């Protein structure tokens, strides 16, 4: 069979690192080809090189047997290469429809944009792949999962022959993943070639025809799924056993640290986003919140930390009503927070690490004394975080943007844990970080749980949720629709509750 | 272990403004040659004059309000707020302070303090209003401060000058000047001639070094301490760098916007002091444009307390030189405006290039540390 894409000796260097080191890749026409590797293995860089967002320093790329040199992604699209990015490339102030047609607008004879034609085409594309979305919604109002759907539709709309998907399943529940995989197989039948990045090995084994493994920027192996097990793949990826999030014995105590009762959050459009939610988290307990993104988890967390107001209901922290309290008061009273998007909500990227370590704790020892910042105390504390949480950095004065994603996350986890919070709100605490950093974060949460910390955990990683939680509740359309025991529930069952396929709550 | 050696940091820091200066001198030379003047003669005249003690006093007197205006703008910039209203704030603050200052009778130190407080309160209120509009009605502060400038300068100040105009109050120095009622001696800051004359020689041509220089120094030290050493400053910078992260970090975003605008306005209120302290009243034709130039000074000085000192001195030197050029006829005085404009444009570009170079360097250092650990 002919090769759709062939990469020979692709090398891409960044200051101080070789992201791709003589990568070899052969993708046959009409196959589903998976690229596996830890974060930092060079997958995303390779994708960008394929899509010509980055120019390789060395090596050649052939598309359908022809050597190509594109100047930009626009030319790559023209050659039939479409990419769905891990970090979305959407214009927030435009509607879904406008985003999809941006740069590929159908026009009337008069030269005006033919929105009816575009909408018809969009609906056809969306329906045939089971990707439902309102074309008139503003992108800024969409949740992460919905945004990804828009990105996928965008590429399909342009009739790409070679689809590149960068971690497409990261935000989907199992049922949706199966649906996506069905669509991918359909696309393959129609002659499309799909290249996708994933580090969930069972998914890779289920869908891929060929798997290429990257490790530290090099292509270490190309295998067929029927020749390897998940364990083999994992070893190829990291060269060691995969850690698991499993907790052992229960550490749940009697005292309730966080209680939420009848909490309701209403957005600017008067829509009920969190609907009469009640739960308790005891000391030493991890309460997992499962749900497809966009079902109110984000807003629930915001109402508990205090950045968005509760329309009704009460939030009680260690016995005190904090429903109307400021964020600062709640943090001083012992709420720790690991935000879902560390760049947006977690860090001051151009500021030095020690200032980042102070963020959220700047009113407390050792970061400040009265109205004064305690620079020495803050630096000392940051050194402690660096040592205890293994943040790899030359010193605590480098700006946060110089660190890798995993190290940034370890810094955030470290600063929250060092403050010994009584309640930790952890939103996707291991999203987008490598296996090593992930295991470290799990260990940190487990250790704090043993010490009596109450944790509210929101995660799209169902294994993480099941492994870490003492109790799991499922949110659907703003309501808690099920309370489950992680000891007995499987990711499949959980997915069924999350999509509403199963609605009875098992106690 | 230090990630980046000190000399490297310093050279990255200084390379940009020095490059901007050199570039603007080159550009101005081209313009001078094109307009038929000799750049060398023009620069020689400028520097020759600047080397005189009296001219240096002029430069310091001009740099003083520019520095204060620069700090006022910088406080806004530190929080990503663009306070274009420094101009209107200082003029309004100055006239109210001059008027009220002339109304009261107080002991010397109290009297000066009173005038400064009034100026700061008026500036803070006028600027804080723009902050309030932003957080309650979502009005961009750029738009609101531009409009408030128009209201203040051609509206309120023009009206108040007439309303409060002293009946034929005449400045003993220049018989034509009219303005508000003169402030009694107890309300004026003494000049610093004693210090200059102690250090160098007697000043000729009736030159005085403004006492407001001390206020500017206090403003600079206060700005540094507030921004870099206090919790409020940390909150301010955090909100400026990343308002979302600051918000979940417990910094109330709306309150910070109002506070930063008010503080910026309070400092802006002090800009007009050097004029009213010098002539003793608010004149019908006050010096204008200090607020706008202050924004440029803050940009060139990178919002840094010391950087703004140099920027203010450069701008003051150029301002004073424009008079010199007109006087000697070496070149058109407008060349100075061109130089100021080119410096700012070149500085913005150069700072961006330097920022990218620094980020690359930092990323490389951090990557090396990863490998080394």
Description:
The complex is a heterodimer of chains A (507) and B (373). Chain A is an alpha/beta fold. Chain A is built from 17 helices and 22 strands. Chain A folds into three domains: 3-238, P-loop containing nucleotide triphosphate hydrolases (Rossmann fold, 3-Layer(aba) Sandwich), CATH 3.40.50; 243-334 and 423-507, P-loop containing nucleotide triphosphate hydrolases (Rossmann fold), CATH 3.40.50.300; 343-420, no CATH class. In chain A, the strands form five sheets. In chain A, strands 6-7-8-3-9-10 form a six-stranded mixed beta sheet, with helices on both faces. A six-stranded mixed beta sheet of chain A has the order 16-19-20-13-21-22, sandwiched between helices. In chain A, strands 2-1-4-5 form a four-stranded antiparallel beta sheet, with helices on one face. In chain A, strand 7, helix 6 and strand 8 (193-197) form a beta-alpha-beta unit. The longest helix of chain A has 16 residues, at 174-189. In chain B, helix 3 runs antiparallel to helix 11, helix 3 (53-78) packs across helix 14 (305-328) and helix 14 packs antiparallel against helix 15 (335-372). Chain B has helices spanning 6-34, 39-50, 53-78, 86-103, 108-137, 141-163, 193-199, 212-229, 231-241, 243-248, 253-268, 273-279, 290-300, 305-328, 335-372. Chain B has a domain at 64-316. Chain B contains 15 helices and no strands. By secondary structure, chain B is mainly α. Classes of the chains: A alpha/beta (507), B mainly alpha (373). Chains A and B meet through helix 10, helix 11 and strand 18 of A and helix 9, helix 10 and helix 15 of B.
């Amino acid at each position: 069979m002919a090769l759709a894409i062939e990469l020979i000796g692709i090398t891409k260097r960044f200051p101080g690192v070789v992201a791709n080191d003589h990568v070899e890749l052969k993708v046959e026409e009409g196959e589903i080809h998976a690229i596996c590797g830890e974060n930092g293995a060079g997958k995303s860089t390779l994708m960008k090189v394929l899509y010509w967002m980055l120019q390789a320093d060395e090596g050649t790329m052939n598309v359908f047997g022809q050597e190509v040199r594109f100047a930009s992604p626009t030319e790559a699209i023209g050659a039939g290469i479409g990419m769905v990015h891990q970090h979305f490339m959407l214009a927030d102030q435009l509607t879904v429809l406008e985003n999809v047609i941006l740069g590929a607008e159908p026009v009337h004879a008069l030269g005006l944009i033919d929105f009816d034609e575009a909408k018809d085409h969009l609906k056809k594309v969306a329906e045939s792949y089971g990707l439902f979305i309102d074309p008139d919604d503003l992108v800024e109002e969409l949740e992460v999962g919905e945004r990804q759907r828009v990105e996928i539709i965008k590429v399909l709309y342009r009739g790409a022959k070679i689809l590149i998907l960068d971690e497409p399943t990261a935000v989907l529940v199992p049922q949706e993943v199966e649906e996506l995989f069905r669509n991918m197989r359909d696309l393959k039948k129609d002659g499309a070639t799909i290249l996708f990045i994933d580090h969930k090995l069972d998914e890779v084994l289920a869908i891929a025809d060929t798997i290429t493994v990257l490790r530290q920027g090099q292509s270490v192996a190309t295998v067929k799924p029927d020749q390897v097990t998940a364990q083999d793949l994992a070893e190829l990826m990291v060269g060691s056993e995969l850690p698991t999030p499993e907790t052992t014995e229960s550490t749940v105590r009697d005292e309730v640290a966080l209680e939420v009762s009848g909490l309701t959050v209403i957005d600017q459009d008067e829509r009920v986003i969190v609907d009469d939610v009640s739960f308790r988290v005891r000391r030493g307990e991890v309460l997992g919140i499962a749900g497809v993104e966009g079902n109110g988890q984000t807003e629930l967390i915001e109402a508990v930390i205090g950045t968005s107001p509760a329309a009704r209901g009460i939030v009680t922290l260690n016995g005190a009503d904090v429903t109307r309290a400021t964020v600062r008061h709640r943090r001083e009273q012992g709420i720790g927070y690991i935000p879902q998007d560390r760049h947006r909500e977690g860090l001051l990227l151009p500021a030095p690490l020690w200032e980042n370590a102070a963020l959220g704790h700047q009113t407390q020892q050792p970061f400040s004394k009265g109205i004064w910042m305690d620079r020495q105390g803050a630096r000392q504390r940051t050194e402690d975080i660096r040592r205890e949480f293994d943040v790899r950095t030359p010193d605590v004065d480098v700006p946060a943007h110089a660190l890798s994603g995993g190290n940034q996350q370890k810094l955030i986890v470290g600063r929250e844990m060092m403050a010994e919070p009584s309640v930790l709100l952890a939103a996707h605490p291991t999203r987008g970080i490598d296996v090593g950093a992930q295991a470290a974060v799990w260990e940190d949460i487990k250790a704090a749980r043993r010490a009596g910390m109450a944790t509210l955990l929101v995660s799209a990683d169902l294994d993480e949720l099941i492994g870490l939680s003492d109790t799991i509740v499922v949110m659907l359309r703003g309501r808690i629709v099920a309370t489950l025991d992680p000891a007995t529930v499987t990711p499949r069952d959980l997915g069924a509750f999350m999509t509403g396929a199963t609605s009875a709550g098992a106690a | 272990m230090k990630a980046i050696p000190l000399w490297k940091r310093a050279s990255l820091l200084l390379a940009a403004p020095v490059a901007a200066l050199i570039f603007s001198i080159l550009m101005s030379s081209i313009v001078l040659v094109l307009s038929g003047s000799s750049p060398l003669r023009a620069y020689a005249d400028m520097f020759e004059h600047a080397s005189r003690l009296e001219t240096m006093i002029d430069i310091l007197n001009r740099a003083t309000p520019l520095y204060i205006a620069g700090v006022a703008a910088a406080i806004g910039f530190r929080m990503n707020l663009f306070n274009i209203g420094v101009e209107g704030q200082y003029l309004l603050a100055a006239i109210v302070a001059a008027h009220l200052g002339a109304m009261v009778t107080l002991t010397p130190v109290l009297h000066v303090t009173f005038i400064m407080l009034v100026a700061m309160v008026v500036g803070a209120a006028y600027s804080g209003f723009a902050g309030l509009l932003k957080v309650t009605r979502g009005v961009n502060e750029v738009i609101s401060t531009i409009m408030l400038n128009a209201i203040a300068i051609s509206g309120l100040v023009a009206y108040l000058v007439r309303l409060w105009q002293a009946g034929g109050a005449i400045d003993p120095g220049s018989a034509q000047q009219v303005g508000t009622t003169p402030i009694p001696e107890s309300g004026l800051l003494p000049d610093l001639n004693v210090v200059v004359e102690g250090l160098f020689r007697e000043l000729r041509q009736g030159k005085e070094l403004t006492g407001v220089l001390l206020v500017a120094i206090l403003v600079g030290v206060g700005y540094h301490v507030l921004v870099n050493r206090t919790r409020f400053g940390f909150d301010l910078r955090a909100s400026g760098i990343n308002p979302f992260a600051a918000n979940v970090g417990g910094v109330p975003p709306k309150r910070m916007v109002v506070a930063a605008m008010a503080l910026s306005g309070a400092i802006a209120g002090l800009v007009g002091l050097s004029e009213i302290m010098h002539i003793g009243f608010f004149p019908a034709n006050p010096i204008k444009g200090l607020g706008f130039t202050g924004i440029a000074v803050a940009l060139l000085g990178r919002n840094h307390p010391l950087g703004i000192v140099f920027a203010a001195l450069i701008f003051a030197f150029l301002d004073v030189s424009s008079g010199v050029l007109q006087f000697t006829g070496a070149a058109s005085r407008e060349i100075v405006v061109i130089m100021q404009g080119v410096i700012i444009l070149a500085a913005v570009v150069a700072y961006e290039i330097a920022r990218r170079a620094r980020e690359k360097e930092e990323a490389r250092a951090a990557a090396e540390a990863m490998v080394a650990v």
